[in-house]
Write a structure and sequence with these properties.
CATH class of the largest domain: Mainly Alpha
Low-confidence stretches: none
Number of helices: 13
Mean pLDDT: 86
Number of domains: 3
Strand content: under 5%
Largest sheet: none
Radius of gyration: 26 Å
Length: 297
């Protein structure tokens, strides 16, 4: 059962209510044709249209709730201000942000899955090489990886082991876990192993070649990550430091020439504080998301 972010409604209620607006969801899904693929990569057993319907229902309730909370809060703090328009705008912006986050949530879950797989990929392959050099067969080494502490990567190999133990052909099982996997490097590694098996080559040499290729890719990702940090840091200084400081200075100077209600000034300051707080969280998430997946913790 899927729990949506920024939603206070129980998942059973959302799933039951989603069938009522499935037609609207089908129209919205045209703007995100990759949603079905992202849901499959996230390993969710739900239809893309039903997921969008759940998001729409969740955000309708969220908008009404936020409007009531924001309007009542502003009315109590600043009764002389026109709270209805501001409450509508604030509730609409927050609801739109929540809907966009829910819209890409399957992609975020799939990206977490990719990160968990690729983070342990090199160490797992190195472990396989050590085992195979010690005389352990390929299937047994995969089974040992599946039972080891390799996070999401171990879960992928467990699927293959489960299929093989159920009577599936070894190569077919590897093909299936590669086809349904969102990680490019995992798929590439499995396909190279399969090609080595079909060609009858030395699998240990094949895996060593995969490790060398991943090591080169790690260096490229680190260089790319370093080049991305500089513009991100400059943008952070501009948005989270310089612009709020200039805004506060401008408001102070302007209030000395024009009579601005104290309540409005307080409201502007609180909005600036909320904006800076939001950008702080956003930049932390941005820096974390840019970190190379192939780097282990």
């Amino acid at each position: 059962m899927i729990r949506l972010p920024y939603s206070f409604l129980p998942p059973p209620f959302l799933e039951k209510s989603s069938h009522k607006i499935i037609g609207v969801a089908k129209k919205v899904s045209k703007f995100y044709p990759n949603l079905k693929t992202d849901i499959r990569h996230a390993e969710w057993k739900i239809d893309a249209d039903q997921y969008l319907a759940m998001c729409i229902i969740s955000n309708i309730f969220l908008f009404v709730f936020l409007f009531l909370i924001v309007s009542s809060t502003i009315y109590k703090l600043f009764p002389e201000q026109n709270f209805v328009i501001f409450a509508l705008i604030a509730a609409l912006l927050i609801t739109l942000f929540a809907f966009l986050q829910q819209f890409i949530y399957p992609k975020i879950i799939a990206a977490r899955r990719v990160r968990g797989i690729e983070r342990n990929l090199m160490s797992a392959l190195q472990n396989m090489v050590v085992q195979m050099n010690s005389g352990v067969p390929l299937f047994d080494s995969i089974q040992n990886i599946a039972n080891s502490n390799y996070g999401a990567l171990a879960l992928e190999f467990k699927k293959a082991v489960r299929m093989i133990n159920s009577g599936e052909d070894f190569e077919t099982a590897l093909e299936k876990i590669a086809e349904n996997n969102p990680s490019l490097y995992f798929r590439r590694s499995i396909w190279q192993i399969l090609n080595g098996l079909k060609a009858g080559g030395d699998i240990t040499r094949v895996i060593e070649g995969i490790i060398n290729s991943i090591a080169e890719e790690q260096i490229l990702q680190i260089q790319k990550y370093g080049s991305q940090l500089n513009p991100i840091a400059m943008f952070y200084m501009l948005v989270a430091v310089i612009m709020p400081s200039l805004g506060i200075t401008f408001i102070i100077v302007l209030s000395s020439f024009i009579s601005i209600p104290p309540g409005l000034i307080q409201l502007i300051f609180w909005m600036l504080f909320a904006m800076v707080f939001f950008f702080q969280i956003m930049f932390l998430g941005l820096i974390k998301s840019k970190r190379p997946n192939l780097l282990s913790d």
